[in-house]
Specification:
Length: 604
């Protein structure tokens, strides 16, 4: 593990003719976070220190030997606690994706480059970064330089860049080792001078006393010479000599239960990590099923919304347009929701790592590891391997029990005709419909928003270009005797009857349960009739919440996403009212090949 020895003044530039991925500055791909809604930019111009000593952060590096088993991933997450861990030899192969995001346990996320296969077809190598939930929120970019080098940048005071590498062994081809260190050197040179830089990994190197006063090895091998040259040229310090921000750097045996024959190296760094921008309040999920089942709550909800809506209207006298009036209805609904509707219960996923069976097996692994460290005999080594196998069996038994429990829940949901719950469990068990994880381009929050806006604006289409607005339109069918007066209560009930409860609300946060269960019909009809008779439509109806859904391909490009638009439920009700008036007259004149546009008609 190496860290910056001092602040550099000038960031070296890279030869622009390079054909590798390094031709693009790795700090020019600051990207949108793969999870959550878009955050607003951090306000203010408060000056931050270069290394602000606010809190300590733990970073580690570990050669896992393999990380393909589910139980190894959960064991690693349980042991990691609050670490950022650079991983080598995870042996997870995904050649079609240079970077893959794995959502693991307890909020941890693994970002990995693909391993490769040797001549025998066995998986070899692969590097990655395991991040805790807090570190995941601060990540700005992550790029794969080669399958052996991955680079991630985190927001903070200052920004933190972590490069994880898995170097060729000392007996590998000399040219291969030199090319790897050349790419690693170029990666380091692209990091801005004000970033706090850490290079960690399995260097397969030995640095002797000819270079350092208190080395672990007596002599320096070939890879050690390359590592020493790299550190000197880039003003890095190998972490055996701790300076500046590195408070402690030691090796530990606490990760023995992961199954690796390597020890973890952990450094305590005093840095200040923060999210890139002010974090908005988390969206609260409410249990709307309670409102649907309680008639007294429905009446109380309607009364309170009416009272608050009336008071807000009285305060805003003079602003009688539809947008201002509807803006009084939105906070009235939100305030009553916060007061009366209970929050949805959190889904607590049981952690296998904390199960008593795995804890007992893990303690036995540590005892066997300590015994093997002191004795170093074939018997102690066999006993250690047997304890590791028992830990794996404990994980398998617990996972088998969880699977059987989910299967019984599927059968019970099917018997109760809860088909959605059944399919949700089936998809969870089988891993189907698991959304891919990705990041979008952009150096700042505003640039990322602009990238999304530009892509979806082109995707959803532009307004048509009309050359002659005064050109008469030829009438194809006769005029229909269609109602154009105000909507009545009967029409409103027919329109809300087909709205499905449980659907997501639009930007106004008014849910289907409010329209169907609460006596607010006259208020909703007022807005619909204002739009129909006078053309005064609330502007809030035109606001759409765009939810990007990743497809295949490079997820840093906007074209590899499709979009779901969440519009206002009240606006959908207005559209349904219009459709119910038009459909009886329009359906008879539609051609047979347009049956797909008609209700209850199909292709012959």
């Amino acid at each position: 593990m190496a860290t910056a020895k001092r602040t550099r003044v000038k960031a070296p530039t890279l030869n622009p003719s390079s054909e590798s991925v390094l031709a693009t500055n790795i700090n020019d791909v600051i990207t949108l976070k793969p999870h959550g809604r878009v955050c607003t930019e951090r306000g203010g111009t408060r000056k931050e220190n270069l290394l602000k000593c606010k809190q300590s952060m733990f970073v580690s590096t570990l050669n896992t030997r393999t990380l393909r088993s589910i139980y190894l991933q959960e064991e690693l997450c349980g042991l990691a606690k609050r670490f950022i861990i650079g991983l080598q030899e995870h042996k997870i192969v995904h050649p079609d994706e240079p970077i893959r995001y794995h959502d693991l346990f307890d909020g941890y996320q693994l970002v990995s480059s693909s391993a490769w296969r040797n001549r025998a077809g066995m998986a070899v190598g692969g590097v990655g970064i395991l991040m805790s939930a807090k570190a995941k929120k601060t990540i700005l970019s992550c790029i794969c330089i080669t399958p052996r080098i991955i680079c991630a940048t985190f927001g903070g005071s200052p920004k933190t860049t972590i490069i994880v590498t898995y170097c060729p062994t000392n007996v590998s081809d000399e040219k291969e080792s030199e090319e790897h260190y050349m790419l690693l050197d170029k990666s380091i040179k692209q990091v801005p001078a004000h970033n706090f830089l850490m290079v960690m990994g399995d260097f397969n190197a030995r640095v002797g006393k000819e270079h350092y006063k208190v080395p672990y090895h007596d002599s320096t091998n070939r890879n050690g010479e390359l590592l020493h040259t790299l550190a000197i040229e880039n003003e890095l310090e190998i972490a055996n000599e701790v300076r500046n921000s590195i408070l402690n750097c030691c090796t530990y045996n606490s990760f023995a239960s992961v199954g690796s024959d390597h020890r973890v190296i952990t450094a305590k760094v005093r840095l200040s990590l923060r999210s890139n921008g002010k974090t908005p309040p988390r969206k609260i999920r409410y249990n709307w099923k309670v409102l649907a089942q309680d008639t007294q709550l429905q009446e109380l909800y309607a009364v309170k919304v009416r009272n608050i809506f009336s008071a807000l209207q009285h305060e805003s006298e003079g602003d009688e347009d539809a947008t201002s009036t509807y803006q009084c209805f939105i906070p009235a609904n939100r305030e009553v929701t916060e007061e009366l509707i209970p929050k949805a219960p959190k889904r607590h996923k049981g952690t296998i790592w904390t199960d008593s069976r795995t804890e007992s097996a893990r303690n036995e692994v540590h005892e066997a590891y300590v015994k093997d460290t002191h004795e170093c005999t074939s018997v102690s080594r066999s006993e250690l391997q047997a304890r590791k196998n028992l830990l794996k069996e404990a994980y398998d038994k617990i996972n088998q029990g969880i699977l059987e429990q989910k299967i019984s829940q599927v059968e019970k949901a099917d018997q109760n005709c809860q088909h959605k719950a059944s399919w949700d469990l089936i998809n969870e068990i089988s891993g189907r419909r698991t959304a891919k994880k990705g990041q979008i381009k952009g150096d700042t929050e505003s640039e990322r928003l602009h990238s999304w806006f530009s892509h979806f604006q082109q995707l959803l289409g532009n307004p048509p270009v009309i050359t002659n607005e005064d050109e008469p339109i030829e009438q194809v069918h006769r005029e229909f005797d269609m109602r154009t007066d105000a909507f009545d209560q009967e029409e409103y009930e027919a329109a809300t009857k087909v709205i499905n409860e449980g659907k997501s609300a639009g930007d106004d946060e008014i849910t289907p349960e409010v329209l169907k269960r609460c006596n607010l019909d006259d208020i909703i009809l007022y807005f619909c009739n204002e739009a129909l008779l006078h053309g005064r439509k609330p502007e809030q109806w035109s606001i759409l919440n765009l939810i990007p859904i990743p497809k295949s391909g490079n997820l840093r490009e906007g074209r590899n996403y499709r979009v779901i638009c969440l519009s206002s439920i009240v606006a959908k009700t207005y559209n349904r009212l219009l459709l119910n008036r038009i459909r009886p007259f329009l359906d008879p004149v539609l051609r047979m090949n347009q049956n797909g546009q008609q209700c209850h008609k199909y292709w012959p």
